[in-house]
Amino acid sequence: MPITEQLAVDYGFLVAFAEEMYVPGAVTPHDEPRIAQAGWDVIGHFLAFDSVLPNPSSKQAGVPATIQLGQRVFYGFLARNHADPTRYAAAIRGTSGFAEWAIDADFLPLALPAPAGATVEKGFWSIYASMTFIDLQGGPIGAKAADGIATAVGAGTVTVCGHSLGSAIATYLSFDVAKLMGNRASACLFASPRTGNHAWATAYAAEVSTYRLTNYLLDVVPYVPFDAPPAFQYSTLPGAQILKPSTAQADVKFDIRCNHNLICYCAMIDWADTKRRASAQDIEAWRCILGPPAFGLNRELTLALEKPVIALGGAVKEIVNLIDVTARTKGGHV
After folding, report:
1. What pLDDT does residue 55 have?
2. Half-sphere exposure (CA, 13 Å, Cβ side) for 249?
3. Environment class of residue 334 by beta-carbon count within 10 Å: exposed (0-12), middle (13-18) or buried (19+)?
């Protein structure tokens, strides 16, 4: 079954809840009562090595500013739906500051033994490879996260969801879950960096029969990692849905962080549904969301940027430079 706009917003908020639950350096998250209020029960947590984002501006010559691995921490949860107990969602959180870091960061390719010819991003994959699934008492379920999901879900269905760096991890996770569960596994991904080469993206689309990837045209993250031709070229998953300022249901303040914010994505997908869910806990996002499309300087700017970004096509480095320079000039690079 296709993932509708309403379902996408549902899953987006689950991932936003996972991001709110994260306690730096800890495997035990904050409680989040909004999950139950949204109609879900958490049945277990995902743990993995934390992402450490070194400052690209202070890196030593010859030492790439790539993702480093920290200690094991909370990365998300698996939840069961109240109305349909055979339906599950796995929510994988993003990482604060990833959009700002990614502009000047370094990324390294890593060849996989399978699928044939597939290469992924080493830092993203290293976090995913460390991921495990535990029950609420801390007991491990399955050798790897995908095994744990398949065991917990049984004959049910599961949608693996993620945002930002978490979207990359959710891409790898949903691929492995689909290998175990077939078409009972799907994915809903937001603001995803490019996770691998063309062979990887093709293999993913063949394995995961139902997925929805939503990227915003003015968000820098979906354009990274940059290609490194002729040695390596990254690809976006086929069929990505692109939110544009001219067609989005909400205007978002033009700003590197706002352009990447998950609840801003939800508002651009479905303004009324997202507004209905507004909470004081999401105050940072609502400082970015200006409301339904309306004439103003911000809208004039985003509409003006839309045309050259589309015209640049696959020139991803030039697109990111245009967005970054414009944000700095505007004073919106935070």
Report:
1. 80
2. 15
3. exposed
